[in-house]
Amino acid sequence: MPILNLIKLSLILGSAITLIHQWPALFEQLPVDWLAILLSYGVSFLSFYWITKAVIKSPPSELAGPDTAQFNPQHLEALYKQASLVERNAHKANRVFSHQLQYIKKLLAKTKKLEHGDDYDAAHASLVKELAVLEHHVERIVTEMNKNVKLGEKLQQSIANIDPEIGVL
Prior knowledge:
Blueprint: H1 3-21, H2 23-27, H3 34-57, H4 60-63, H5 73-113, H6 120-162, H7 164-168
Helix pairs in contact: 1-3, 5-6
């Protein structure tokens, strides 16, 4: 707190204390106690000065509020594990999608080579069956990706609660 603010606060408090202690001198014919007035202002100034120094020098644990509970090591370790899980799931989904893409390219090549003839119906039925299996796999992958997205959103919110600047990334 700047010294000017300390002086202002001590003048206000000192004046209030002086008014209370010097009340009889103000309205009656009693002498003014100048030492009491000086002490009122001096003690007010020193009190505010020491209080601000104590607050500035106090360790963070004394100033800790309810939000600092989020910074405990177990919570950070849990966030790290959650981030690792999101990363692992993303890599797994990437591998599966790459594999499915190769499978789709193989089916496309088969479809392009398909010609009318004796084995056309058998090849067509085989392709329809493979496409149904592929559709089932893609649906499962999309379900897993949706779970991973929700997990990632929870992770992002948890990190934003700790440090909003990181949570935006």
